[in-house]
Amino acid sequence: FIPFKESMINQFMPAQGEPPQTVSTMSASYQEWLPTLKAVGTVKAVQGVDVSAEVSGMVSAILFKHGDHVTANTALVQLNTSNDIARLKSLSAVAELARITYLRSEAQFNAKAISKQQLDSDKFNLESALANVAEQQALIDKKTIKAPFSGRLGVRLVEMGQYLDPGTAIATLQALDKVYVDFYLPQQSLAELKPGQHVTVSTDAYPKQTYTGTVSVINPKVDNAARNVLVSATLDNPGQKLLPGMYASVELILGAAQRYITLPRSAIAFTPYGATVYLTAPTPALHHP
To answer: How many CB atoms sit inside 10 A of residue 242's CB?
Structure first.
């Protein structure tokens, strides 16, 4: 019975033929493709510093608020200068006396009443006194801490009455109308890079907004460890939304758009022997005798 059953199955299966296959087709078409390189970069301000005290002193006035937009040379913090101003007045009086003495000696020298050596000595005393006045005035000026350039201030880091040592930061100042984006590319890309190429930048903080700019600098040195080259692009920053320290996705456009026939990935069969694409052809007409 078993051999008979196997015989019947063997006769039945070939008669069934190949089961029908369901397939879908699409028309291939040309699309434009931009040759690009992608990287992750870091946003940097075109100008950015931590504004700090150049000389020591006690804070007597704070002239800014958190997040203020300021112009260059705007006074931000005033240190106590009462003792310095008193010393300036004393030095100014000494300089005035030295000036009067020199003028008197000059008149006497012209009348041949004193020697040239005495005149030179009085001139030296006058110049030394004036230098002391200028030095003291410079010290007083440094106790008014000013913005070195126009930009936006950050969080205030000092309080009234606080004693500041030289180098103590009072706030960060960032110029944000334009920003840099620094990113690395492998050394194999060097032949394709040149200043002026266009870049498109996006960040997850503003996923629906993109920023455009151009490559401004290609570092003339390749990193020894990673064999990557540092590239810097300059971007306009409308609304000053891009902040220093943010990371961003960078797409560098290498050239003009090119036309290629494109297919969806699902239309390609990937095998160890290569990729395969099936083309459909019209069924030949049947001829009846």
So the answer is: 25
In SS3 terms, 198-209 reads as EEEEECCCCCCC
Structure tokens at 275: 């990729």
Read off the pLDDT of residues 230-243 as tens digits, 9 standing for 90 and up.
Answer: 999 999 999 899 99
Burial of 60 (0-12, 13-18, 19+ CB in 10 A): middle
Contact 144, 78 (CB under 8 A): yes
Looking at residue 256, its pLDDT comes to: 63
CA of residue 89 relative to chain centroid, distance: 46
In 3D space, the residue among 255, 279, 259 whose CA is nearest the CA of residue 267 turns out to be 279
Neighbouring CB atoms inside 10 A of 79's CB total 22
With CA atoms as reference, report the closest residue to 183 among 131, 119, 226, 130.
Answer: 226
Query: How buried is 76 (Cβ within 10 angstroms: 0-12 exposed, 13-18 middle, 19+ buried)?
Result: buried
Tell me the C-alpha distance between 210 and 202, whole Å: 5
**Tokens standing for residue 30:** 């040309």
Nearest to 37 by CA among 219, 208, 206, 233: 233
The span from the CA of 13 to the CA of 10, in Å, is 6
Q: For residue 4, is pLDDT > 80?
A: no
Q: Distance between alpha carbon 4 and the CA centroid of its chain, in Å?
A: 83
> What is the tens place of the pLDDT at every residue in 81-119?
999 999 999 999 999 999 999 999 999 999 999 999 999
Helix (H) / strand (E) element for 244: namely none
Using a pLDDT cut of 90, give the percent of the chain over it. Answer: 67
How far separated are the first and last CA of the chain, in Å rounded? Answer: 46
Quote the distance between the C-alpha of residue 205 and its chain's center.
16
